[in-house]
Amino acid sequence: MGAHKLRILIAKPGLDGHDRGAKVVAQALRDAGFEVIYTGLKRTPEEIVREAVQEDVNVVGLSVLSGAHLPLATKVLAGLTAAGATDIAVVVGGIVPEADVPALKAAGVEEVFAIGTPLDRIVEAFRARAHALESGG
């Protein structure tokens, strides 16, 4: 990883109580050298936005297994915009039907990592984000 060290907030929005995947991804990102903050379970979009701004993160990773990925991601994106934090990227991981990916990306989600995405691919996507920030992107 280059000089820019990404700060990443991993969040579990909504009422979904399963967070093993989020913890596995958070640990893989830490092992790859990123600064990772895990919010814990059942966070509201408003809490996630507030924590993302307070922690001055570069990326918010939303882990959603409940099927509510579209409304939850949309609320987080709207909250970040309202907070003037449009420079914070949002990615979504979890159970996301392929048919919903275009709607998530149209809403502003940068990347979607479906269940079963290899950890190396996730880490590489975050490294690419760090390199883009280093080069002013």
Low-confidence stretches: none
Integer-rounded radius of gyration: 13 Å
Shape call = globular
- Strand line-up in the sheet with most strands: 2-1-3-4-5
Mean pLDDT: 93
Which series of helices and strands comes N to C?
EHEHEHEHEH
Main beta sheet: 5 strands, parallel
Residue share in β-strands: 15-25%
Helix percentage: 40-55%
Number of helical elements: 5
For the secondary structure, the number of strands is: 5
Alpha-carbon distance between the two ends: 16 Å
Question: What brief labels describe this structure?
Answer:
5 strands; 137 residues; 5 helices; alpha/beta; five-stranded parallel sheet
Notes on the structure:
- The chain is α/β, with parallel strands linked by helices and 137 residues long.
- 43% of the residues lie in helices and 18% in strands.
- The protein is built from 5 helices and 5 strands.
- A 5-stranded parallel sheet has the order 2-1-3-4-5, sandwiched between helices.
- The chain is globular, with a radius of gyration of 13 Å.
- The two termini are 16 Å apart.
Give the gist of this structure.
By secondary structure, the protein is of the alpha/beta class. The protein is built from five helices and five strands.
